[in-house]
Structures are given as structure tokens and as C-alpha cells.
Amino acid sequence: MKKIKKIKIKINGKIKSITQDTHLSIVLKNLKIPLNKVAIELNEEIVDKKKINKIKLNKNDKIEVVHFIGGG
Amino acid sequence: MVNLKKDSLIIANKKFNSRLIVGTGKYRSMSECAKAIKLSGAEIVTVAVRRVNISDKNKPLLMDYIDPKKITYLPNTAGCFNSKEALRTLRLAREIGGWKLVKLEVLGDKKNLFPDMIETLKSTEVLAKEGFKVMVYCNDDPLMAKRLENSGADAIMPLAAPIGSGLGIQNKINIQIIRKQTKLPLIIDAGLGQASDATIAMELGCDGVLVNTAIAKAKKPFEMALAFKNAVIAGRQSYKSGRIDKILMGNPSSPSKGII
Questions:
Q1: Are B174 and B140 in contact (CB under 8 A)?
Q2: Is B146 a catalytic residue?
Q3: Complex-level ipTM
Q4: Nearest C-alpha in A relative to B57
Q5: Catalytic residue among B103, B122, B133, B229
Q6: pTM of the model
Q7: What is the pLDDT of residue A1?
Q8: Is B68 exposed, middle or buried (0-12, 13-18, 19+ CB in 10 A)?
Q9: From 1.10.287.1080, 3.90.470.20, 3.20.20.70, 3.30.1490.20, which CATH number describes the B17-51+60-241 domain?
Q10: How confident is the model over B112-133, as pLDDT tens digits?
Q11: Is A14 touching B (CB cutoff 8 A)?
């Protein structure tokens, strides 16, 4: 049986442990991110939200999920 | 009576009836912010781009309180201290949902919050080339305002005074010079303290004002929102009505003929 390998990624500055090759869409879904109200960066590159189910995450990937908040 | 209905504010080919832009920061709650915006009559609100709170999934979202279909969101780069950060922020803002009309604000000093105009100018050039419609927060220097215009800015937004200071317009002459030299929308951004400051800005010939702290931190934000709404309308009407010349000596209002 294939052993499940865990990797560490960083999302919004917080370290998270996930199974290797997990798709970005799964991570965002588990965090209940409302995709229509956010923008996503993977390793400082903007990610096309339509393609998140094709992106597999690797060790030390850095994800940023941003939205609009009150500001001047 | 001036017909203000036909006197729209046009920014990047988009028409707005209100000349008051308000910020959405510093309110005690999102519902207070939403109500103040409604009372202000503003059709454009500035918003910041920040990380989603992933540990508290039930935290209320701004979009749940202020509908971006009804009110134009103006993503802002507040908190950015160089061009790289500002560009990253606005590219992300565009990605959230197609926002192209943005407010560029690159700060140079953490204490006085004056804009870093070299970084601002660089960013304006890049953003304009990338198809953004850029409203640019800047100092009140006419030469720099001209450079921004030449670099593709869609609106010039000089400060009245440091952000959040409430000092009101410190350099009326510079604002008037900028007014004379540009046909771009000229919007006073930052430093207003009370409603009359907005009237003065409008009487100087500005096309609009952007206010956050003066409303959000007033003792009664709702009343102040309304006061700013009226002050902007009053200032615009006054400007369009053509003020009298200033003279040194008195000029009686009643005729001197027929005095008993």
C-alpha cells in the first residue's frame, strides 16, 4: 500500500499540513473560502480561479488569499 | 437654481451623481459603516485588500454589508510603501472581480503618511499600461500632478493635509493651480476634518472629495455623513454660481440714494 506523504504549506502566513499532491481547490474548499469574493496567489503569482482544481500543491508552497475589507 | 442633476462627476468614462467618495475604514462596525455610506449618498467607496481570516470563517465580509453591484468599490493600496507592494495589491484587487478603477496610494513615511511621489509615479505608468484606471493619491505639487497626468492617471487626488489629521486644506493656492492646469477629475483626498473643509475644496473648483476619518471617527458618524453630503453639494453650487470679487473696502448693500 502506498504511504500517504504529508507536506507543509503556508496559507496566509499560517503553516498547514496537507497530503502531498492535494489540489489547491480542496484546501480552499476545506477553509470555506468564498471564491467569488477573493483573489489567490501561489508563491507570489496570481492564480486563475478557474484553474485551481488543476493545481497540485507542493512542499513549502505559499498561498495568499485576500479580499476587500474596510479601508480609506 | 443650478441643475446639479446634469452636473455629473465623470471618472474614466463612468458617470457618478455624488461628488463625495467615502472610505470604509475605522468604523465601529460594518453595519455602522454601511449606514454612514448610505446617508452620505456616496456612490464610490474605497476598500483595502487584506488577507482573509482563515481561522475565523464566520467573520462578516464587507461585501455582505455593501453591495459592490450598487456601490462602486475603489480598491486602495493603503499601507503600501513601495511600487512593488502597490502593484501586487492592485493586481490582486482586479483578480477579485474585475476591478479596474483603483486608487493608488504609495506612502513614504510611517509618521506623516505623505505619499512617496517617485514610487507613485512609477506605479502609475505601469498600471496605466496594464489597463487600470488609476486615481492617484498625491501631494499638492502642481508639477508632480502634471507628471501623473502625463503618465496616464485618470484622476488627480492631492491631499488637503496628512491622512487622518483633520487639518483641512493647507495649501489652497496649489490646489487652485492644479485645478487650472488639468481637465482630469481633481479630488481632494485625505486630511479633511469637518464638513466645511469639503465645501472649501469644492469652492476651489475640485470635482470631488474623499473622506474617511472625519466621518468614521466623528462623535456622530451618521450626522457627519449627512453634513459632508450637504457640504459637497453646497460647495459645488457655490463654485458653479460664480463668487463675487474680493475687495478691500466695504460696499454697502443698500442704495445710498434716498437716505433720510
A1: yes
A2: no
A3: 0.91
A4: A32
A5: B103
A6: 0.90
A7: 59
A8: middle
A9: 3.20.20.70
A10: 999 999 999 999 999 999 999 9
A11: yes
